[in-house]
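Hi everyone, sorry if this is the wrong subforum. Our group has a chain we'd like a structural model of before ordering constructs, and none of us has done structure prediction before. Sequence below.
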Amino acid sequence: MKGAVLLPTILTIGFLLVGIGLAASLIVLLLNRSNYAIRLSANALAAARAGVDEAQLRILRDNNWPVTNCDTSVSAGESNNTLTLTVGQYPVYVCIKRELFPNKTVYLVKSLGRVSSRHQRQLEATLWADPITHQLRLETINEVPI
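Answer:
Right subforum, don't worry. Here is the predicted structure as tokens:
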């Protein structure tokens, strides 16, 4: 008779341990997914910032660049005349619009870093260039919701 009482107790304890193990593995899985999404989003932001930096370098090398402006009212990846870069393994789309004024040149830069269709970040930057000294100054940089 002792064995008949012991078997249900062992089975109950076993089912409880299996349930606790499954719950713990589910929690770990969900935490890893959220950390992975945060990392992908950070990679997309870093890629977009690299696109702004690349635009600065190209403008510094050639003051007349870009010759043709792209439409900065749309997303950087959807515009014509978009500069396409690869940062690491991620594509970056950079759109630059140049506006000439008598005492300065203003560049509006949109940079879209895309890691996946769900993880992409876009930055908008305003650069001022002095036509006499050829100094380039980053005036503003903001993240734009997509």
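For your construct planning: The beta strands are 83-87, 90-100, 105-114, 120-129, 136-144. The mean pLDDT is 86.
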